[in-house]
Design brief:
Structural class: mainly alpha
Number of strands: 0
Order of helices and strands: HHHHHHHHHHHHH
Largest sheet: none
Helix content: over 70%
Length: 311
């Protein structure tokens, strides 16, 4: 299937999830979430978003440097804000990341390496997120404790695959599979597991995950869910893990996962949808500096074009 075909499949799946939620619960949960929003909630979203975005950008610079492409932190922060904003406002949920990788790659003279740096940076963050989710589900009691087993199996399987790819590579062989394994192993060793990279990747990823969890707990409180933070943290981590799936400008899987998790916990699927709506608006507000970055780039491009025309 082509890239456009996969994009249509993802769009259709997200649309189907939204349609199923509206059919089952109506639009009241969405409106409840919007009505619950207030100034302090949005201010907290912007503050948490600033911390998590800087950490993501730092992680990206470290991974890119390991792959041999330079990336200053201020430029990385601006590009990351732009990427998040595009991910949250355009269908697919990955347009911003692709744009970020291509732009950085062109500036560095190697588009392929720029895209690989973005891919590995995001993969590292999701790996740490899965590990932290598993740890919290193991430590804290929750109504979804039965999901710990499947999640643990998935995490262990991913770890085994990583070890096989990185530690069991054989330099011989010219097949596409052998070349791919060598390329993956080289990227992982240089970009993620190097002694200067690994601590930064783990630390920044942990801060990002905990920041997103804090934002979700704020959304829980704002939506009026009658549960304590300790009770909600395992559910928040599981819901955030499910939100990794791309949607329609962020919508779709987020509301579907939240509805399922809250329903399984006996809190009501409608409360899950309302919380997801609050969290989605918080995420959009936190990404608004990315709109300023895009506007600044557009203005700079227009000025440059006018200068060339006048000349």
């Amino acid at each position: 299937m082509t890239g456009r075909g996969w994009a249509l499949v993802r769009f259709g799946a997200a649309a189907a999830v939204l349609a199923a939620i509206v059919w089952r619960l109506g639009t009241g949960s969405f409106l409840d979430g919007l009505r619950a929003l207030d100034g302090p909630t949005l201010a907290a979203a912007a503050g948490i978003g600033a911390v998590t975005t800087v950490c993501c950008a730092w992680r990206w610079t470290v991974v890119a440097r390991g792959l041999g492409v330079r990336l200053p932190l201020p430029a990385a922060v601006a590009a990351y804000y732009r990427s998040i904003f595009l991910n949250l406002t355009l269908p697919g949920g990955v347009v911003g990341d692709v744009h970020r990788g291509v732009s950085h790659g062109r500036g560095a003279g190697d588009v392929g390496r720029g895209l690989r740096a973005v891919a590995w940076e995001r993969a590292a963050g999701q790996a740490v997120q899965a590990l932290l989710t598993l740890a919290i589900l193991l430590v804290l009691p929750s109504p979804v404790h039965s999901l710990v087993g499947p999640l643990a199996i998935a995490v262990v399987a991913a770890a085994i695959v990583l070890v096989v790819l990185v530690e069991r590579i054989r330099p011989r062989g010219r097949s596409w599979w052998a070349r791919l394994r060598r390329a993956v192993a080289g990227d992982v060793r240089a970009g993620l597991l190097a002694h200067r990279a690994l601590p930064v990747v783990v630390l920044t990823s942990a801060v990002v995950v905990l920041g997103h969890a804090a934002a979700f707990l704020i959304a829980v409180r704002t939506a009026g869910v009658p549960a304590s933070p300790a009770e909600m943290l395992p559910l928040a981590m599981l819901a955030l893990l499910g939100m990794v799936a791309p949607g329609i400008a962020g919508w779709g899987p987020r509301e579907g996962v939240a509805a399922w998790v809250f329903g399984a916990a006996g809190l009501g699927a409608d409360m899950g949808v309302a919380t997801a709506v609050v969290y989605g608006v918080m995420a959009l507000v936190a990404s608004l500096p990315g709109a300023l970055v895009l506007a600044g780039e557009g203005l700079a491009s227009a000025v440059h074009t006018d200068g060339v025309t006048d000349a």
